[in-house]
């Protein structure tokens, strides 16, 4: 066999080996979601590829038979093709025995390098980049090879199946897609720039609805604006003007005896028509949905759907009112800062090393902002204020602080035993607080500076806050829920 014929055969063997390498990696790396999308676009090859992924045993058997057979032939042909030629050239400078041995070594290195580069590395890398398209191209020839080598495939497949059963190994790939898989895909899309970071965060928030309780999104008890059943007309009108919100609970005597709720649209109609407002009129009061405080946000959404309501009162195990929640509250939790104005953020980043956080901020949002995996005893609280109470084992006071996870959580403002603001600062390894660039001379003045730039506390939508004597909070007008 001449040198030209040997080189031609080696080139064919490299091409065949590259084909099998592409066939192997493209099937393994192809995404079922992408193949299913291509099948929905009327590409019949995609359906065949999906079926092949479900039962890939014969397919991979053909690939291994082909690759190993080609490797053996490549060694035989390569050794005879280049050893003699290289040995003859080296005899010009070396003794014949040395030149022959060195020619064999060089022939082995050249043939092996060609196979590694052009039959392995390059095709496998291409197959990882465009697996679905390459799989559809090689699928037809591979099915032909499976037909030709069917007897050999059958023998090896039966032996392999027996070994897998004996060893107790799985023989099929788990194709179930979990929420973790979807979140990982969205995070990868956000890093690649295909998906906006805010959109990725909204998707992550949707999956958190099953784990976040309703307490993380509700309006707290002390911020609820409500009417008493016997409130006169002028009191109701004054409250509407002072706290214009979409819904108001109606109570009999106190907030723990809720008889229903009234929609602001019904009250406005009476005002516009110069009619007196009396909450003793049962036609104004709607039946209120009562839900326990241990429900998740997903369960609350199901309750809203079942009763066709968008407002609910939340009770604890002692049947005391702990808050109210609206459909808008739940959607705000999902959408995050996509729907929340900047001046109503619960978490304000002052600089790269410190944050000013509302005490009622859900702990999941705190973890996300601080890039923490978890906080201790998470099952005992829902908010940052609850975390501080659990860690301190008492009701926190102003200037109380907790160091954990490389951060210092310092209580800056307490209003009637309720934690309003917490300053979170990053710590050095030695436990000292990292410096704030261009910071005010004191921590309290820093908080005052932030507070002066805008309200640090968020008012949740759907219900108003009761005015407080010493520290009135700016309120947000919530549009009527349709």
TrEMBL record:
It is a multi-pass membrane protein. The chain crosses the membrane at residues 6-29, 70-94, 100-122. The lineage of its organism: Bacteria, Pseudomonadati, Pseudomonadota, Betaproteobacteria, Burkholderiales. This is Polyamine export protein. GO terms for cellular component: plasma membrane. Residues 1-199 form the CNNM transmembrane domain. Residues 218-277, 284-344 form the CBS domain. Involved in cadaverine and putrescine tolerance in stationary phase. May facilitate the efflux of both cadaverine and putrescine from the cytoplasm, reducing potentially toxic levels under certain stress conditions. It is found in: Cell inner membrane. Keywords: CBS domain, Cell inner membrane, Cell membrane, Membrane, Repeat, Transmembrane, Transmembrane helix, Transport. PROSITE patterns: CBS (PS51371), CNNM (PS51846). Residues 456-482 are annotated as: Disordered. The keyword Cell membrane applies. GO terms for molecular function: flavin adenine dinucleotide binding. InterPro entries: CBS_dom, CBS_dom_sf, CNNM, FAD-bd_PCMH-like_sf, FAD-bd_PCMH_sub2, Ion_transp-like_CBS, Transptr-assoc_dom. Belongs to the UPF0053 family. PaeA subfamily. It comes from the Bacteria. Pfam families: CBS (PF00571), CNNM (PF01595), CorC_HlyC (PF03471).
